[in-house]
Design a protein that fits this description.
The chain has about 350 residues and is an alpha/beta fold. The chain folds into 2 domains: about 190 residues, P-loop containing nucleotide triphosphate hydrolases (Rossmann fold, 3-Layer(aba) Sandwich); about 110 residues, 2-Layer Sandwich (GMP Synthetase, Chain A, domain 3), CATH 3.30.300.20. It has 10 helices and 11 strands. It has a 6-stranded mixed sheet with strand order 2-3-1-4-7-8, with helices on both faces. Strands 9-10-11 form a 3-stranded mixed sheet. Strands 5-6 form a two-stranded antiparallel ribbon. The protein is globular, with a radius of gyration of 22 Å. Bound molecules: guanosine-5'-triphosphate and magnesium ion (MG). The site of magnesium ion has 6 residues, from helix 1.
Length: about 350
């Protein structure tokens, strides 16, 4: 079969995570309208059956990455390191640009209606700079075409195609799931012959605990404004699984977890970290209303994910400057935590 890693690269908010979710058909990565939502590398795994006369069976591992930005904190630097690492280990790279941001509204002249015109933008310049040195196939995805008048797309393709010898230039709408079939077909042609990297039914490499922490963080991003989303982090402190044998199959899209009273219960306690007392007050809200709203909407999402009922306890911890603390950032990195555990286990069994 064909199998490979496809890294997705783009500015914050370009739609990388929306695309990975659309391709896997699962909520692998959180999505918000705020930039810098994704902080780590996230795998979304797609199995494509063989199509006679078209392509062989394939497993494509999409690698969602943080948006390319100029780092200011240590957290930002770590996020950019994730991007560089994803560009090192890959078979194909897909650059994704937001078509709607390449347009601007030209003021109406006289009685004529105002219209959208292509604008010169250097926003994506750093992204194109990063792919220049790559020796692998690079695709260009022009996303959010649902927001752009058709006649504007052709000049955009011409302009962007000139920036790099892209193997393919494709128009997509990740949100509307438009243009994804041709994308999968074209990708498979560039993937190496290789056995699958993950079991057939696996759609992500993230542990459930990390997914749950991300779902809580998504609610925080959506419920708060100003600097709170950027200064917030979520750490799962306790995770008590239902007794063995009682865990139901994933509720999936039917979403029966919340409504079915007899389902087993998972108990989760999570800490929300912020940097200042003022941010803590915003997160708690008047009479605790904000924290309650975050907790109840996150709980529903986690129930959907786990297929159990969930008892979710949230509390807030002020950790000044956590975005600059090496040790704290390590505790947020589940890959590093798993490696540490494996090393510890190895050294214990060596004794
Ligand atoms: N209209 C429209 N909106 C889209 C499309 N794709 C993504 N969006 C929206 O764009 C916003 C950002 O999407 P994300 O998927 O979080 O973007 P991202 O590139 O992962 O952003 P970061 O994680 O911050 O780097 C969200 O509000 C999405 O709903 C699309 O095809 N059309
Ligand atoms: Mg993202």
């Amino acid at each position: 079969m064909r199998c490979g890693l496809v890294s997705i690269l783009g500015r914050p908010n370009a739609g990388k995570s929306t695309l990975v979710n659309a391709l896997t058909g699962e909520k692998v990565a959180i999505v918000t309208s705020k930039p810098q939502t994704t902080r780590t590398r996230i795998h979304g795994i797609v199995d494509v059956p063989a199509r006679k006369g078209q392509h062989p069976a394939a497993q494509i591992v999409f690698v969602d990455t943080p948006g390319v930005h100029k780092p200011s904190t240590l957290l930002d630097k770590r996020m950019m390191q994730v991007v560089y690492d994803a560009l090192e280990s890959r078979d194909v790279v897909m650059v994704i640009v937001d078509a709607s941001r390449r347009l601007e509204l030209e003021p109406a002249a006289g009685s004529a209606p105002s219209k959208r015109v292509l604008k010169e933008t250097s926003e994506d310049a750093f992204v194109f700079e990063l792919v220049r040195k790559l020796d692998c196939p690079v695709f260009l995805l022009i996303n959010k075409v649902d927001l752009v008048p058709r006649e504007q797309l052709l000049p955009m393709i011409t302009e962007l195609s000139a920036l790099h010898p892209f193997k393919e230039v494709l128009l997509i709408s990740a949100r509307k799931r438009d243009g994804l079939e041709p994308l999968l077909d074209k990708l498979i042609a560039y993937l190496p012959q290789r056995d699958r990297l993950f079991p057939k039914d696996q759609f992500t490499d993230q542990p459930e605990r990390f997914l749950a922490a991300e779902l809580i963080r998504e609610r925080i991003l959506m419920e708060t404004g100003e600097e709170v989303p950027y200064a917030s982090a979520v750490v799962i402190e306790q995770w008590e699984e239902p007794r063995a044998g009682t865990k139901a199959a994933r509720a999936g899209k039917s979403g029966t977890a919340a409504t079915e009273p007899k389902l087993p219960l998972t108990r989760i306690a999570a800490a929300i970290y912020c940097e200042r007392e003022g941010q803590k007050a915003i997160l708690i809200g008047k009479g605790g209303a904000k924290l309650k709203a975050i907790g109840s909407s996150a709980r529903k999402e986690i129930e959907e994910l786990l297929g159990t009922r969930v008892f979710l306890q949230l509390h807030i911890i002020v950790e000044p400057n956590w975005r600059e603390q090496r040790g704290f950032l390590d505790t947020l990195d589940w890959r590093r935590q798993l490696e540490d555990l494996a090393r510890k286990h190895e050294s214990e069994t060596d004794l």
